[in-house]
Amino acid sequence: MSIGEHMGTRSAPRRRRMRIGELMTQGLETIEADATLRAAAELMRSYGIGALPVMDGEQLVGMLTDRDITVRATAAGKDPNRTRVREAMTHAVITCDADAPLSEAEHLMEEKAVRRLVVLDAYKKPVGLISLDDLATIPGETRHAGEVLRELNTPQ
Fold this sequence. Notes:
- 33% of the residues lie in helices and 19% in strands.
- Strand 1 (31-32), helix 2 and strand 2 (51-56) form a beta-alpha-beta unit.
- With 156 residues, it is an alpha/beta fold.
- 25% of the residues are buried.
């Protein structure tokens, strides 16, 4: 399955019973912490994505978004051909378990004010991403995703 494809069905009768792993985007693309920002941007462009979990070998060490590249590096005049991902990434990565209910993902997004979470398997290895956009694809639940988005955009 390629990036953007989802596991499971979207027509589950009761969303609260769905697990994160059923809705997450799988086929996870990652980037090494010592890669250049240019390499990261090219990867994002080729897959049409805006975020990459950052790995240091087998260890998840951060998250890099297109906004991180723009705000932390480009706006500061850093050369994307020489600047390493670790210099622009967000170090705090919010994760969730694939077997957890969707309500946990919603709660974490609201509480931590993030739009996406890295999904971990039983061995604590990254296996996918779940985003606010994923939550909005559940039939009949677009309104709830809107409520999560409103919470994210409300000044704290």
